[in-house]
Specification:
Elements: H1 19-22, E1 25-32, E2 39-45, E3 53-59, E4 61-67, E5 73-79, E6 86-91, E7 96-101, E8 107-112, E9 118-123, E10 130-135, E11 141-143, E12 151-156, E13 162-167, E14 176-181, E15 186-189, E16 196-201, E17 207-212, E18 215-220, E19 225-231, E20 239-240, E21 246-251, E22 258-260, E23 272-277, E24 283-287, E25 293-300
Parallel strand pairs: 22-24
Antiparallel strand pairs: 1-2, 1-25, 2-3, 4-5, 5-6, 6-7, 8-9, 9-10, 10-11, 12-13, 13-14, 14-15, 16-17, 17-18, 18-19, 20-21, 21-23, 23-24
Protein name: WD40-like Beta Propeller Repeat
Family: Belongs to the TolB family.
Organism: Psychrobacter pacificensis
């Protein structure tokens, strides 16, 4: 007998989630092949593994998708062979894609402002990597960092007054995480230890998901307590759900009891998304579509 299709409301692995998480979408990239034959596919999927939608596909690379606060727009970078990465925005309602950043150099790690009017991103258009702010209505662009070091991976705070990002300005090749305040134009370090990168703040501002060494991790900012989720085998960070109570990360080697997305529970294989409850409940994995390498999940409304 054919099993019924799971839904975001009836799946036992997601039934306990807040509605803001359960009814949201996770965008992620799946890679197949290598070198000049690499094919990257951008999908969105529900947290219970249902409703997988193909958003874009290219022979080349897709990097760092990022949802707008309302979950209607998805920004990401796309790089065709022998071309530089360009930033596109996908509109979920109209299913259209628009090219928004096509500057010479590597244009990566887009992040929407909470009101959806601005986009932060990093670019090497000026030589080394710096962070830029674009007004989406007319494309007006402002360069926010001007250091000779590498400033990348900006991510807006939910109040729009600051953003976190990665910089190796103290020691080349040893990145740290900083918070840039728009009111002062100054950045202060976020207290962390060792090699850290790719930060993302929770909507309530209490937690930060990031890459801690080689592990996907989440920090409680008020206490500095760090929860190391897993060494993913991909050097990928964790990303937080809209409520901030769950984290998602990709892995080559999922070993969790729950499995959704077309395969039986308990299967163990690589190329999965793992969803982990930060409140101490179950973790489970969502299968990749075609057995490829899963990267860069981001959970939106």
């Amino acid at each position: 007998m054919k099993k019924p299709t799971s839904t975001v409301n009836s799946n036992p692995l997601t039934a306990a989630m807040p509605a803001i998480d359960r009814q949201g979408h996770i965008a992620y990239v799946e890679e197949q092949g290598s070198g000049s034959a690499k094919v990257s596919t951008l999908y969105s999927i529900r947290p219970d593994g249902s409703d997988r939608q193909l958003i874009d596909q290219i022979t080349g690379y897709i990097y760092a998708p990022a949802w707008s606060a309302d979950g209607q727009l998805l920004a990401y970078s796309k790089q065709a062979p022998r071309e530089h990465p360009k930033i596109y925005i996908y509109d979920k309602s109209s299913k259209t894609r628009n090219l928004v950043v096509n500057a010479e150099g590597s244009n990566l790690s887009a992040s929407f402002s909470p009101d959806g009017q601005y986009l932060l991103y990093s670019s090497t258009v000026g030589g080394n990597a710096d962070i830029y702010k674009m007004r989406l209505s007319d494309g007006t662009t402002e360069q926010l960092t001007t250091l000779p070091s590498t400033e990348v991976q900006p991510s807006y705070a939910a109040d729009g007054k600051s953003f976190v990002y990665t910089s190796d300005k103290i020691r080349a090749g040893r990145p740290r995480i900083y918070r840039y305040h728009f009111a002062t134009g100054k950045a202060v370090p976020v207290p962390t230890n060792g090699y850290v990168a790719s930060p993302q703040l929770s909507i309530d501002g209490q937690r930060m998901a990031y890459l801690n060494g080689r592990k996907a991790a989440v920090m409680t900012l008020t206490t500095g307590q760090v929860v190391s989720l897993a060494e993913t085998g991909l050097d990928e960070p964790a990303r937080l759900s809209p409520s901030g109570n769950y984290a998602v990360y990709p892995t080559r080697f999922s070993k969790v009891s729950g499995q959704v997305g077309g395969q039986s529970l308990g299967r163990q294989k690589g190329g999965d998304l793992v969803i982990h409850s930060l409140l101490g409940h179950t973790s489970y994995a969502i299968n990749s579509q075609n057995g490829g390498v899963v990267r860069s999940p981001i959970w939106g409304r």
